[in-house]
Amino acid sequence: MAEINVVGLSMGVLLTLIAVALHYSKGTGWQSTQDISQEVLDRRAETVPETDFPEPMNRSIGGGAAAAAVAAGGTADGAELEEGGEETVEESGPADIPEDEVEYFEVEFVKEGETIELANNKTILESGEDHGWDLPYACRQGSCVSCAGQIQDGPSEEYVVHDNQQMLDDGELDDGYTLTCVAYPRAAFSIETGKAP
Ligand code: FES
Questions:
Q1: The pLDDT value given to residue 46
Q2: Ligand 1 center from residue 159 Cα (angstroms)
Q3: Sign of the torsion angle spanned by Cα atoms 25, 30, 31, 32
Q4: What is the location of CATH 3.10.20.30 in the chain?
Q5: Separation of 147 CA from ligand 1 center, angstroms?
Q6: Is 146 in the pocket of ligand 1 (CB under 6 A)?
């Protein structure tokens, strides 16, 4: 009986030790994974220098202030835009001529060897393309000279209305040069396309 009691006692002690060991190993050996993305974000935040101005679209940084700043900028720009808008209305003249008020002018395209009628609400470039010619162009807004041509009859502005050409100076205009992408005919003329000053 004494032997049995010793064995039983030993087993009991052993099982108790194992249970205690397991209990502690489970309780202290395992930890939840830390939020790595937050860690990365924190590290990144440390490397980014602080700025005084709110980042656009970032509502978390003084959202109201950011919005106010944008709104303030917007107001200033808005005023310019309004002015610009008025200019646009003034400038939109030639392209906005309604179809029943359109006038046509005979224009000779010297290189192409043909005379065609151009509407005064379309640019020389557009009308030439509509006719099937592959005329040169790049920006199509008067800010390069890729589409330039030379009117043979005299100062170009006697024959076309330029809608916001930004490249030709008065001397070049007087020599007949025009930017065909923004030039609307106002009289009959001859033009050599693909000719820049
Ligand atoms: S295509 Fe650039 S000015 Fe006409």
A1: 74
A2: 18
A3: negative
A4: 99-193
A5: 5
A6: yes
Gap from CA of 142 to ligand 1 centroid (Å): 5
pLDDT of residue 34: 59
Output the pTM of the full model.
0.56
Task: Tell me which fold the domain 99-193 belongs to.
Answer: Ubiquitin-like (UB roll) (3.10.20)
Ligand 1 centre distance from Cα of residue 178 (Å): 10
Q: If you take atom 3 of ligand 1, which residue's CA is the nearest one?
A: 142
Ramachandran angles phi, psi of 104, nearest 5°:
-120, 145
Start-to-end CA distance of the chain, whole Å, equals: 122
- Contact assessment for residue 168 and residue 177, using Cβ atoms and an 8 Å cutoff: yes
Select from 185, 81, 181, 76 the least CA-distant residue to 137.
Answer: 181
- Which tokens sit at 121? 């609400």
The verdict on the CB of residue 137 being under 6 Å from ligand 1 is: yes
Ligand 1 proximity of 193 Cβ (cutoff 6 Å): no
What pLDDT sits at residue 93? 78
Residues of the chain short of pLDDT 50, as ranges, are: 1-2, 58-80, 82, 84, 88-89
Please indicate whether residue 140, judged by its CB atom, sits closer than 6 Å to ligand 1. Answer: yes
Asked if 123 contacts 140 with a C-beta cutoff of 8 angstroms, the reply is no
Q: What whole-number distance in Å separates Cα of residue 169 and Cα of residue 161?
A: 15
